[in-house]
Amino acid sequence: MMRFSQLHQLVICTCLFLCVHSQIQGQGEFGFKIGGNISRINGHFEYYKTTYRPGFQIGFSYKHLLGETIFIRPEIAFTQKGGKIDYKIYGETGSDYELYGYQKVNYLELPLNIDFKLGSNEKNFMYVSIGAYYAIAVGGNLVLDNKLTDHDDPENSRTIHYRMQMQYKDVITTGDQRKYKSSFEQENGFLKKSDAGVKLGLGYQLGIIRTDLTYCIGLRNINPHEKGVTSTEIAKTNATLELNFSVFLD
């Protein structure tokens, strides 16, 4: 099986090859894409749940004709992923505890797609696509609101707002965890440096304009390993639904 570290090398080499080949054959088109998405981080969490939050992506595409009905389409894009977090405990002593917020995770993404044209029209047609992507984390934030509701003493109720930078490491230590105040922040403030997965899409091309709806399925566990911990760790994966608009130039 191909290692995740080799996937981005394949995408880069494919892009370089197609750029050179297109200059000789004249069968390629460059394009610009922009779009929005909803994303979440999946996992079997015991004490809280995650839901989708909005994000966006912007980047460049290159479309190369392989046959009458098949295109190969490598891309490079800045993509904002993450997800909402909701954690609640209803106490038996008159106090309720809520913690809610979101993870905003930014990636530099390198997708490699294959498009299958449906129909015989050369300018206007529907297509389905499959592909793979490799992504490198380049920033992001963990934003949390810690809310305590004291029903016996309302004046003691309070909400504390936290905002901190996401940390990207494949292996974390006790020293890394001390950067955060609580175990909840420790659990959600760290992710792995990279992600990889597959893409499935459906789109329509109208002249030089394309629109597509794509579902991105993360296959890599992005939850870092805790050094010295032998217990079973929660696997976390990205899931994203994208709506993209692209313009291609001959």
Give keywords.
250 residues, mainly beta, Porin, eight-stranded antiparallel β-barrel, two-stranded parallel ribbon, 14 strands, 13% helix, disordered N terminus
Count of DSSP E strands?
Answer: 14
* Integer average pLDDT: 82
Q: Label the CATH architecture of the domain at 4-83 and 105-140 and 194-249.
A: Beta Barrel
Order of helices and strands: HEEEEEEEEEHHEEEEE
Query: For this entry, what is the oligomeric state of its chains?
Result: single chain
Work out the helix count: 3
CATH class of the domain at 4-83 and 105-140 and 194-249: Mainly Beta
CATH domain fold name of the domain at 4-83 and 105-140 and 194-249: Porin
- In whole angstroms, the N-to-C terminal distance is 37 Å
Question: Share of helix among residues?
Answer: 10-25%
**Uncertain segments of ≥5 residues (pLDDT<50)?**
1-6
**How large is the radius of gyration?**
22 Å
Q: Characterize the largest beta sheet: strand count, sense, and whether it forms a barrel.
A: 8 strands, antiparallel, barrel
Global morphology? elongated
Beta content comes to over 45%
Structural class: mainly beta
Please provide a written account of the structure.
The N terminus is likely disordered. β5 and β6 form a beta hairpin. It is elongated and about 70 Å long. It has a domain of 172 residues: Beta Barrel (Porin), CATH 2.40.160. By secondary structure, it is mostly beta strands. Strands 1-3-4-5-6-11-12-14 form an 8-stranded antiparallel beta barrel. The protein is built from 3 helices and 14 strands.
